[in-house]
Amino acid sequence: DELAVGATVRPRPGTTVGLDVTWARWSAWQGPYIRVTSTLPLAGDLVGELPSVSFSDIVTVHVGVDQVAYHSAALELRVRGGYGFDPSPIPAAQPGVTNLMDGSKHIIGLGAGLRAAPRWLPRPVTLDAHFGLQLVGERTYAKHLFAPGETADPFRGLRDEVKDTSADPSSRGVQISNPGYPTISGGGHVWSASFLMGVEL
User: Which residues contact 197 (CB under 8 A, 6 or more apart)?
Assistant: First the structure.
C-alpha cells in the first residue's frame, strides 16, 4: 500500500517547483519467498521453513525544478533538475539465510527541453534530453553461526549443514553453503540517459 501527496508551486514566472512525498507500507510484505513442501519415499514429508523478515515502512521524498531559460515566439528552452531520496525498507542486518541486497538511494536528474516553432516548420518540434544517476548505499551483512543446541531461526543465523563424523574427514569443521557467509557486501550506482524528439499535432 502507498499513500502519495504532491504539490506544485510557481514562485515566479517561468519557474515551476514540484514536490512528492510517498509513504509505503512495506511492513505488510511477506518477502519474495515461496514455501515448498514435498513427500519423499522413506523420508516422509519435507516442509521448508521461510525466514521472517521485518520490512520497514518508508517515506520517500522527490523534488524537481523546471525553469524557462529562454522564451520567444519561435523558440523556448527549459532546463530541469531533480533529487529524490528513497530509504531502504530491508533490514540493515541480515545474519541468517537471507541476502537481500539493498540500501538507501539518492536519485539525481538533470534535463533540458527545446521547443522550436519557426515559421518555416509546418508543426512545432520538441527535443528533450535527460541524464540520471541513482546511488545505492553500500551495506555489509555479517552472518551469525548458531551454537550446537541453540534455537535456530533462519533469519537470525546459520547452522553447520553437515554433521561431523570420523568416517568422513571432509565433514569436519563448519560447512556453510550460503553465498553470504561469512560476510557479503553490496551497493553501487545506475546511470541513465534519454533523448526524445516529438512533433506537435
Answer: 125, 126, 127, 128
